[in-house]
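**User:** Here is a favour to ask of a fellow structure person. Please take any protein you like and set down a full record of it. No explanation is needed for now; the record alone will do.

**Assistant:**
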Amino acid sequence: MDYKKTNAPLNTVTRDMMDLCKDTGNVYETVSIIAKRANQIAGEMKHELDKKLQEFASLNDNLEEISENREQIEISRYYEKLPKPTLIATQEYIEGKIHYRNPAKERLSLDD
């Protein structure tokens, strides 16, 4: 996924939690949904970064032999400039791109 194309802000934004939790009716459930998605995004970003930096790793690395590589620095800077996973997840939640379900609520509705 190209995280540069997301509508997420680069800086922290104050949000009205009551407005955010309209779908679930519970602030804690909303925060939990966003946090789980943020963890998924962070894992994907870390995997992507590790994959790209793996190209620069050599098998015989010593502490003395490590030198700065311009391409490696550019890749790292690119990932540093991306919006944080929490901001991306919050934006996805606001845009309705996160699909979630609560098995406990589903069980309660079946019992009724």
